[in-house]
Design brief:
The chain is an all-beta fold. The protein folds into two domains: 286 residues; 75 residues. It is 1% helix and 32% strand. It is built from one helix and 31 strands. The longest helix has 4 residues. It starts with a strand and ends with a strand.
Length: 372
């Protein structure tokens, strides 16, 4: 439905686009293809259920050559309801075939098989060095809907890795502070490499550690899948997933300065993955959750992050994300929560606000009231 860049053209210079607050559904091979650099894809709802002759397909496809498909921010989206395509007997939700992307605060649910596939094709890029954190994964590959695919098969997993005979393997991806519930397994690796080549930290498995207590979620599909507010994955007050997230990275050097060197700067973006002035640079918290500053620049090769003013800390200090690309606070309390919603933070679900219709506005005695 929407491709950004040319997957098969290594010289394509497409980039710096912002796609937000949109709904994509009923597509053929995929709904959206990210095949270029420095794009922000945020707060969208994608679903590709059975819609044509009982067939559907995946939602997001990130693929192409290493030189021109990297450094994309995928944030705050909902990916759900995929179905088998016309040319195969299974498909998952999101396919990642390239490197150096940020996936955070997304929700993956009710997908036909695995929710996210890391897959490398010979001659293309490697699916390495991606940072996948604070996402929510729920009820993917449900036995009740897809018994021939699920029920303990390799595809019955939240995250699937397959190098598709390229022989190069998949490595150095980071998974932190994600929340999983209602899955047979969280990760499955196929062919080259191993799960040991990735980094996993503070991953919350609700099937082992306890029901995360979502506000509204059921393993039965809702009657109206066009409603992007259902399921509601915000956490109830007694959720064991609250404050279960951990540090993203640490300070290596350069404290009390307008620049720091981080052990890994790949979690953050400086507002340049989109048209100028349309995306906020991240705020990070350094050392304590109340010591925050906005990023002005990131050099990924060296880990250097710059700020508009001096930031105090100590070397080795913990670093978290404080505000995301649209200015939403995502860190409240002693530590980040696991998953896509931070309890106590003001979060507007994707597509919850599509527009406001006002028939009359009255202003009386400096008080404003709405009537319709």
């Amino acid at each position: 439905m929407l491709d950004i860049g040319d997957e098969e053209n290594a010289s394509d210079t497409t980039g710096y686009n912002l796609i937000e607050d949109s709904t994509f559904f009923n597509g053929g091979h995929h709904l959206v293809g990210l095949m270029s650099n420095y794009n922000t894809f945020r707060n969208n709802y994608l679903h590709n259920e059975s819609w044509s002759n009982s067939k559907g397909n995946r939602t997001l496809y990130v693929m192409g050559y290493a030189a021109n498909v990297k450094y994309n921010l995928i944030e705050g989206n909902r990916f759900g309801y995929t179905a088998p395509p016309c040319d195969d007997n299974l498909t998952g939700g999101v396919l990642i075939g390239t490197s150096n992307h940020i996936f955070r605060y997304n929700m993956f649910y009710y997908n036909h098989a695995y929710a996210m596939l890391f897959q490398v094709y010979a001659g293309y890029s490697n699916a390495n060095y991606n940072h996948v954190y604070n996402n929510t994964w729920y009820a993917n590959c449900l036995d009740s809907y897809w018994p021939s695919i699920c029920s303990g098969s390799d595809e019955d997993t939240a995250i699937y890795m397959n190098d598709y005979a390229s022989g190069v393997g998949i490595a150095y991806n980071v998974f932190k502070n994600n929340l999983y519930y209602e899955h047979y397994q969280l990760y499955h690796n196929e062919d080259q490499g191993s799960l040991g080549d990735q980094v996993f930290a503070n991953e919350y498995n609700g099937d082992v550690s306890g029901n995360p207590l979502f506000t509204t979620a059921s393993t039965t599909y809702p009657a109206d899948i066009s409603d992007s507010s259902v399921p509601n994955f915000s956490l109830l007050s007694g959720s064991p997933a609250i404050d279960q997230g951990g540090t993203l990275t640490t300070v290596s050097s350069g404290c009390n300065s307008t620049s720091l060197t981080l052990a890994d700067a790949g979690y953050f973006q400086d507002g340049t993955f989109a048209p100028s002035g349309t995306v906020d640079a991240d705020y990070i918290a350094v050392g304590t959750v109340s010591n925050t500053a906005q990023i002005t620049g990131v050099t990924y090769s060296t880990g250097v992050v710059t700020f508009a003013s001096s930031v105090s800390c100590t070397n080795g200090a913990s670093v978290w994300l404080y505000k995301d690309s649209d200015g939403t606070i995502v860190l409240v309390g002693a530590a980040p929560d696991a998953g896509a919603y931070e309890y106590g933070a003001e979060v507007v679900p994707p597509n919850a606000i599509q527009g406001v219709s006002i028939s009359e506005l009255k202003v009386t005695d400096n008080l404003t009231a709405w009537t319709d």
